[in-house]
Amino acid sequence: MGRVYDDVRLAGAYQAGNEMPEASLRAWVELIGSFSPRSAPAVVEIGAGTGMFCAALARWRRASLVVGVDPSVAMLAQAGRFNEQTGVHYVGGSADAVPTGGQLFDLALLSRVIHHLPDRRACARELARILRPGGVVVIRTTFRERLDALVYDYWPALRDVDSERFPARQEVLSDFTACGFSVREEASFAQPVTSGLREYHARMATMPQSKFTHLTAAEFQSGLRRLEADAAAEPVTRPRPVVERYDVVVLALVQPLDGSG
Ligand SMILES: C[S@@+](CC[C@H](N)C(=O)[O-])C[C@H]1O[C@@H](n2cnc3c(N)ncnc32)[C@H](O)[C@@H]1O
């Protein structure tokens, strides 16, 4: 499932289709950075994709180092194109094989990636290796039991698809606590992603997320037509921002694995 992002079309559509208004991205980065055990943290983003969070963390949280790891060459090419920045390095790798030494990072971000991992526990073990003691993992996702995005109003079949793909909260917590992490904080955080339905429609028309590959062409077109009609009916002068909510879990490394380093 993770390899879906090797698709050059999807990688090309991802950046524009998932950008956030600057204020929303900044709010997210402030929240994520607030969990860091130190100022100017060394950050690793697992499944960095096109690098939106890597660049923003370097820019606004003054991270001392940001390493974005992703197995997809196509996504990393987009990161180099759109989110190159001083202090940010993009490297090929995966959640269970990060090509760096141990005990290097203060904060690891996993944004919208946990559902792609074939072996979450191997990822937790790898993070226990590369984080410093006291370092934190910030998981940004939607747990299976809380699938509440607007996208499901237009493509209801995606709710079933996502309830298969997304892990339940307790499954994720168990995998990390088994590897030396303890739950430090859980939150739910929502920010506008587009200014209104017109912009949302324009984005969804590009199928900017892997979930759309699970729909037939007819299912996709039917949802898109309904969204287009609603967008056309929205008053141009009073668009209603589309808000997306995510679950956030923060786990602290309390017991580094033997032999890390
Ligand atoms: C939905 S994108 C998220 C990108 C970025 N984190 C964001 O929030 O915008 C998911 C990313 O996870 C990557 N991915 C898939 N399988 C992975 C794995 N096993 N380890 C690390 N990253 C993986 C994909 O290549 C893709 O770039």
UniProtKB/TrEMBL annotation:
The Methyltransferase type domain, residue ranges: 44-139
Q: Which GO terms describe its biological process?
A: methylation
**Keyword entries, A-Z:** Methyltransferase, Transferase
Q: Looking at the keywords, is Ribosomal protein present?
A: no
UniProt-recorded name of the protein: Class I SAM-dependent methyltransferase
Reading the lineage from the top rank, the first entry is Bacteria
Molecular function GO labels: methyltransferase activity
Please tell me the species this chain comes from. Streptacidiphilus jeojiensis
Q: Does the keyword Methyltransferase apply?
A: yes
Q: What is its EC number?
A: 2.1.1.-
Gene3D superfamilies noted in UniProt: Vaccinia Virus protein VP39
